[in-house]
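Holo prediction. Input below; ligand is (R)-mevalonate.
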Amino acid sequence: MSARIDGFSKLTKEEKINWITATHFKDAPQAAQQLRSYWNSSPKVQTQHDEFIENTLSNFYLPLGVAPNFLINNSLFTLPMVIEESSVVAAAGNAAKFWLDKGGFEAKVIDTLKVGQVHFHYKGDPSILKTFFEKNKIAMLEATKSLTLNMEKRGGGIVSLDLIDKTDDLEHYYQLYVRFRTADAMGANFINSCLECLADALQNLSQQDVSFKAQDSKIEIIMSILSNYVPECLVQAKVSCPLDTIPTHEGMSGAAFAKKIVQAIDIANCESYRAVTHNKGIMNGVDALILATGNDFRAIEAGVHAYASRSGKYTSLSHASIKEGQFTMELSLPLAIGTVGGLTKLHPMVNWCMELLGYPSSKKLMEIIAVAGLAQNFAALRSLVTSGIQKGHMKMHLFNILNQLEATDIQKEAALTHFKTHTISVKAVGDFLTTNQS
Ligand code: MEV
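Structure of the complex:
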């Protein structure tokens, strides 16, 4: 059967499943059944999920775990984490426990400014454009009033509007550079609507302007879109404790352990190959919270890694120091997130996670997410500079290997005991199961 189809999106869900399974699968009924087995038992909830995107056939599960004991700015939180990587939730829980009796995590939002741009071409005299912009700036902002009124009531709105000459980078290229605050919303729709409105106003006002007519040059709008680079939507998380409160780690004194963590972060700061993996560990915590709270992990990832490269070189997002007997680790992250709108009310599990967190404001959620990133970074480095990453990782991965090799419950129990004292690998587990058949 041909894999080409026209009008697929117009088929019913059942027709889509029939076509896709008949076209691409050896056992079509089994493939269709697999999709159905992941439908929610409540037709209402399933319809909600179906309507998030186009051509939904089923759901795709990721585990939701929780990491308790996070003391953040003196309040205790249990963090919801959506992630498939076996050791991440356990690592978060361990890091939370480590810092719990050392004052916990401190976090603070530096600012919440977001950016959008109207990109346009203009071939005329730059001074005419500049004069026109200054003369019409208020009128352009006025044009957005119906969009910004509600946001202003919630403490947000357009914060600044500037004309930027980018012709040194690209011939005829200018932009309107707009900064926004969006209160508790991520604000993508609000920002993009404002930008499109500003673009229309720019175009219309320039068409009526005599100086533009006189020089026979017009503004050509290319596109209007928010930027996911948000270095002014920044949050900082920090942990700190006296060296003498750090316990011995695998024969290493607390002070020696802290020094190794500082050394490890120094390496990530000067070496991009290491920095990428180091930051990936931070994002293990960040993304798990971003997903659990229905935020946009692609936007966060893009923005965070651009921020890690802001000096022109990709470096570590976290920093550590030992000063006057005090060990400190900190992390700054650009996080444009929301706690209202988007999936927050529509996705029942997102709503559940929000309730678990006490329905935080977007600023509070920024703090919680940054802490999750810092905790994950600490946990990863703690393993790396002591026992190595594989010990904890493979311990958590043991269940995956046992399931993959279709171990029975009795075999699983025996394997858990056996591998407390033996090195875990797929081969070692396979050999174990062969000699322990029951
Ligand atoms: C694995 O998901 C994350 C780590 O590689 C992070 C790191 O190396 O710092 C352990």
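The longest strand covers residues 233-242. That is the main takeaway for now.
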